[in-house]
Amino acid sequence: MSPTFRALLLAGAALTLASASSLAVAAENDAGDAEANQVERVVITGARTRTSAVTGLDMSLRETPQSVTLVNQERIKDFALTDVNQLLAQITGINVEKVETDRTYYNSRGFDITNFQVDGVGLPLIWGIQFGDLDTVLFDHVEAVRGANSMMTGTGNPSATINYVRKRPTNTFRASGALQYGSWNDYRLEADVSGPLNASGTLAGRLIYANEDKDSYLDHYQVNRNVYGALLAWDATPKLTATVGWSMQDNRSRGNNWGALPLTYSDGTRVDYPRSASTSADWTHWNVRDQTGFAELAWRFDNGWQFKTIGTLKRFEENAKLLYAYGAPDKATGLGVKGMAGVYPSIYESAILDAYASGPFQLFGRTHQLVVGGQVSRSHGHEYEDFSTETIVYGPVTDWGHIQPAEPSFPGAYLAADQIDRLGRFYAAAHLNVTDRLKVVGGFNALWLKSKGFSYGADQARDASKVSPYVGAVYDLNDNVSLYANYTDIFNPQAEVDVTHSKLDPAHGKSYEAGFKSEWFDKRLYLTGAVFTSRQANLAEFAGTFEDGKSYYAGVDTKATGYELEAVGAINDQWRVSLGWTDLSIKNEDGNKARVYLPRKTLKASTSYTIPSVRNLTLGAQLRWQDDIQSQDALLTQKAYGVLDLMAGIDVTDKVRATLNVKNATDKTYLTSLMWSQSYYAAPRSVSVRLDYAF
User: Fold this and answer.
1) Which of 102, 190, 391, 540 has the CB geometry, 3.0–4.6 Å to 496, for a possible disulfide?
2) Nearest to 106 by CA among 85, 120, 137, 122
């Protein structure tokens, strides 16, 4: 099975961030004024920041009976988090598995993140691994819900759900631009213009553009990415708003890898590569064009109710020419590695219609909230394979930096995969104001899924349905501290096949979480803690490969338990802090350690300090640390390591702000992942300078 089709049929991918100002601005502001001014360093914690990502109900983080983190524009700009891989790597409890230059997995709480949304709308069965680098310029902020989220997704692992929240047209004129230059000839340009288009202000628009063109520390690798966004919002009446939008991310990479470096010699000892080492060649490429269009109608009624419907069309196109290296080199000669190559043109299209109504109702003399909604979607993916029959022979590993394999011939493409997925779901939830201190959330999600087609010889037909309950409660001990708990079912349709080429049945299980949420120092500092347990039966786990090199899997029972602690907010008006700790245990049905390539303990820390009297000078640092990990076969171990980033920003003028970022400041050497038996080295120390201009 080719790299993309397998991934896109597994289910979506992910994001959030606990930053010094993570819980700020955008979620509280209306669509007209969603963005914070670069100079205004606002911190808003759990009681005032709101989200509907968990149940569809608009609730504060303090009221929400689940772990939620938000990432805002201030953090993105300060630390130059221009793509989601950089962003996610800083989030409490989330790990980034960058197995290749252009293919990335994400996981949380021991399981893959398979649910991604934009403005609360997603299609889990189409969105899979992240291909290329997803740019952050289109998004106002990002919400991450850790744990199972059956209410708003219906499917997926008890890991996390990532919700990207779009930038929207503003009711006042705003324009900004940015220039950035960094190590390895990394050039970046951003432009963002928004404002009213008529005298009454009922019509507003927004245009967004970014381009990034960069070389790499890796041999052969180059990326050029163009990002476009256009939105139009019309207040047809004081109660009715129509919004339409289109976006495109066009990511073009050359010299990308497929798989990565063979890590051991044939005698089992470790190969000592330079950090620039790659198994790729200049003739490879992986071009991805991802387009989304949407239309939204929102009605607001005098009784506090609202109705919203959103139609989304998504088209994902890729054309990849890939080179994969396999085999272990001989330690004496460096020879023994061979390669295979293929061309994979693919198109995946999806259509989604989502509608819901929400508002207050009265019961037993108290006011409660209710949401009722549904979604239907259809996705169609077809992929062609043009696989070379020639065996590629690599030279000695010591020569890979200046000698590369020649491009083979390709016999012609055939239709390798053609699959249609249809999904429908209906959900409802109530936020019950039982007493002044006790709030209860109860609801369900009913889902129907049908698939047909084939993928590399495997029948993709399936017909599944599930009703998943959700129940949660929050109890306010006092004005500062609340206790919470939640329970939900797990239902995870799987695309993997077993040794008989039969598709695995859906994984299923249960997820429990309990914890506390608290606010201190006049609600400026937000402290949370959670304990969690998740059990999944029949979860796909790699079990081997067929003679043609394609993978097969076995269903195993897996249990993950652990706890998280997080502190986000401000010590005072100038000093912001963030600290997140995760401790995790993952075991299989025999009680043995499972998924050993995942770290069991992780630390994410961030701090920044602003001096307003010195032109808003801001100094900051962020640290991520993880403990030891192993390859699945336990032959390789990567010791615990930490990566430190530093930043400094200052207002050059009232309109111009300059920011310096040093990433991997201590120049730590480490592998990007041990999820597979192959890997490559992460980037050495890098430096970038950014100028932001606000008109």
Assistant:
1) 540
2) 85
Please calculate the CA angle 296-132-154 and round it to the nearest 5 degrees: 45
Phi, psi of 54 (to 5 degrees): -90, -50
Burial 447-466 (b: 16+ CB within 10 A, else e): bebebebebbebebebeeeb
Q: Per-residue pLDDT for 458 more than 90?
A: no
Q: Are 290 and 227 in contact (CB under 8 A)?
A: no
The DSSP-derived string for 609-661 is EEEGGGTTEEEEEEEEEE--EE-TTSS-EE--EEEEEEEEEEESSSSEEEEEE
CA distance 105 to 654: 41
Percentage of residues of the chain with pLDDT beyond 90:
73
Residue 614: other Cβ atoms inside 10 A = 10
Residue with structure tokens 């779901």?
A: 425
**Total length of the chain:** 695
Predicted confidence band at 58 (pLDDT cuts at 50, 70, 90)?
Answer: confident
Facing residues of 315 across strands?
A: 291, 349
Give Cβ neighbours of residue 225 (< 8 Å, ≥ 6 apart): 132, 133, 135, 210, 211, 212, 213, 249, 250, 251, 252
Q: Check: CB of residue 325 under 8 Å from CB of residue 394.
A: yes
CA distance 384 to 136: 30
Strand partners, 109: none
**Tokens matching residue 658:** 């300059």
- HSE toward the beta carbon, residue 592, CA cutoff 13 A: 6
Say which residues have a Cβ less than 8 Å from residue 592's Cβ, sequence separation at least 6.
none
Instruction: From 316, 314, 326, 317, select the one nearest 377 (Cα to Cα).
Output: 314
* pLDDT, tens digit (0-9, with 9 covering 90-100), for 621-652: 999 999 999 998 888 999 999 999 999 999 99
- What average pLDDT does the chain have? 89
Alpha-helical segments (H) within 476-595: none
pTM for this one? 0.90
CA distance 677 to 259: 9
Residue pLDDT, tens place only, 477-505: 999 999 999 999 888 888 778 888 777 88
Strand partners, 385: 414
